[in-house]
Amino acid sequence: MKKALCILFLVLTAAFDGQAQCVGQAGQVKWHIWMGFETFRDSSYMSVQEFYPETPDQTIILGSLETAVNFNNYYVSLIRGYISVPQTASYYFNITGDDDSQFYLSTDESRDNLKKKASVYSYTSVGQHDKDSTQTSELTQLVAGQNYYFEIHHYEGSGGDHVGVYWRSPNVPDIDTVWQIVDYNYIKDYNCEVSCPERGTACDDGNATTINDQQDGHCNCVGEYPTANACVGERGKVEAYFYDDIDGTYVENDLTNAPNFPLVPDRREYLDGAFGPHDFYDRNDFGSLVQGYLTVPVTGQYEFNITGDNQTFFFLSKNDSIEYKQTSQALVFYGVGESEHDNSVFQNIGPLLLEAGKYYYYEFRHKENSWRGFFSLHWKTPFQTHDGWKRVPNFYLYDYDCEVSCIAQGTPCDDNNPFTNNDQIDANCECAGVPCTGEDCDNLFAKYNFYDKAEHTTNVISTEENSWLSCGGGTAANPNPARSSLNRWIKYDFSNQYKFANSRIWNYNVAGETTKGFKNVVVDYSVDGITWQALGGTYAWPQAPGDSDYSGFAGPNFNQLKARYILISSIDNWGDATCSGFSKVTFDALLCDNKDTPCDDGDPLTSYDKFDDSCNCRGVDINCASDTIALVRGEITDAEFKAIKRIESQSLVPSTQNVTFTAGNSIVLLPGFEVSSDAVFKADIANCVQTAFEENQELSLKKETLLSDDQDRDNIKKVIFRLNAPGDVKLVLLDGKGNKMVTIIDDYYENLGTQVKYIPTAKLDKGTYVVELSINGNQLKETFVVD
């Protein structure tokens, strides 16, 4: 028993000695500053930074708890140290700052006991002590001779900046009624900052099998270990692929069901770690995919946590095999904040025992809908000097080098070379730019002008070239005889009949000429351009401001009216004597031709597509999607029709076509059904779905040219298959020897009907490849050749 007490006494003594050793020089503290943020950052963002609160960009010695005024823009700073008073008394603390500022004080020398005492979350003037009640703390007793650890957190956007901590005490002369800055008489420096060699410094880890040994910035010398896995790529390379214009907030099924996912992304970024994208607010309606390998510098227990917005999935394998990626999973079902680590237990993995020298496959899948979109992986490690979650940097990550993903050739990109122009994806799926030319074009010291990128907007340019005007006295007669007195008009012919809903108007917006804009307006619509119907009464259009911030106004609602022509006529304008016009109009409309008008429903596995009474374009399923297929009188153009139960037909089988009907229960040939003398007609009663599997009819693999953004996208295979009932679907690409190259789908599908996936071939070597599809255990294969 005495031995146990002795050990406990020694441990406690060592702990107190450790805290005391951090108390540094009296009369000063260090002001640590991190620069270069493009936007305003707060404490939640800084807490997950890998080296925070160590390794600042700049350090300044202060003689009081007050910083310089107007020091800089877009920076984060930290002041920490100890307060010690010569006599025991109770004190109020007060903080002022520009912008966000917080003051934390411990109950003793330990950082573990920090409590927020005072804060202000909007800017104050220097010495403005009463803007917010949170600026002043409650009365706090300080004991003479005791060192109290403190931290001041300060976050600056743009404009003026400063931070200061004041105090007063009812029992201390000179500060009993007036706020005074806590000065050098009462402060001591914090002297326990960790000092490690800078990341990337060459070193020797003592292991003869490793190469490229480097310091990691945490006093670990880390080399690259050998591996037999050819998919382990470059250290420090984190490649994120993004898939644009996908609606919804869910990884499953919104992202995974998208034809382009996972092999035909729209763009990519190289990330600084297991977090991205670089700009959280740049885009909406996109999905993300990141694959790679994680390593650790020391063997030990590791914990992981993910945050993301919106839905985010993270997978971590037990080794370097992608087959075991679901060994450990973390999920964010709905969007959480960047440092909101405790919203759900599903965000966490571990503790896990990870070994130095091993590679662990990881994968992110992420879906963004609107506003903010990001994903982020954090960890707690055996080598951290501070508690809390930290983002995983790219130093410990390796690229996944076995992907066949390819962005369309010609897509703009960034090759990370500042001395190239017109960067685009080339025929080998690589981003390459044209080297610059001219004197000093590759001189790092040359000066270049950089401009902010253009963003999407609903505004219109305030120039004459972007507007429409009707001028002079020789205008044509109004198409609607009932409007014959109105000679300022514009008629839209949409070529087909549409069902119209909302509209939006931008009146004439040329600076200094907005009096030409329409003022009182009537709107008519027509199906044939001859008979016109009035839409409501007279509409009053507001005058435009004539500047670039103009975003228009809501126009008439057509309430689902069907029309081919729309006529807008001006009764008067805002005062101009010669011209009238406007800048822009948009209509929300749905194609709606007359019933039985041929159309394309977008389903490659249907035929005889026609409009119905409700403006829906619908085709006849020819591949087992329907219980019954009814073919009306007319010439058959497809060779094969399949129905689960019944086919009815009164059509003509032409001499140039051989036709097969397959149905589960019955085939009915109605009066009018004919077969030309040279044609062959075959009718089978069979299990339609089973027959389709046996004949590989549910998988159609074709080489097609796809169109996107008016650019040809060659070297892409299109896989089409039909899903008639919910089930487990697995789609994989195999090489000619049957080795799996990539899993395209491995999921439970609930969305029925035609499914499409794209496979790029630009990264595939010449040879034969196999696409293997399994649906609820039924398997079929198709081959294709890359030549």
Summarize the structure.
This protein is mainly beta and 787 residues long. It is built from four helices and 54 strands.
The secondary structure category is mainly beta
What's the tally of helices? 4
Uncertain segments of ≥5 residues (pLDDT<50)? 1-18, 447-455, 689-713
Number of domains: 5
- Main β-sheet: number of strands, strand sense, barrel status? 8 strands, antiparallel
Question: CATH first level of the largest domain: which class?
Answer: Mainly Beta
Count all strands and give the number: 54
The gross shape turns out to be: globular
Measured on Cα atoms, how large is the radius of gyration?
Answer: 35 Å
Reported CATH architecture of the largest domain: Sandwich
> How far is the first residue's CA from the last residue's CA?
81 Å
Helix % is: under 10%
The CATH topology of the largest domain comes to Jelly Rolls
Average of per-residue pLDDT values: 85
Beta-strand content bin = 35-45%
Pfam families: PA14
Protein name: PA14 domain-containing protein
Organism: Arcticibacterium luteifluviistationis
Domain PA14: 24-182, 233-396
Would you give an account of this structure?
Helices cover 5% and strands 43% of the residues. The protein has five domains: 22-190, Sandwich (Jelly Rolls); 227-400, Jelly Rolls (Sandwich), CATH 2.60.120; 464-591, Jelly Rolls (Sandwich); 606-694, no CATH class; 701-786, Sandwich (Immunoglobulin-like). The protein contains four helices and 54 strands. It is globular. The longest helix has 20 residues, at 2-21. Strands 1, 2, 3, 4, 6, 7, 9 and 12 form an eight-stranded antiparallel beta sheet that branches. Residues 1-20 form the signal peptide. Keywords: Signal. It comes from Arcticibacterium luteifluviistationis.
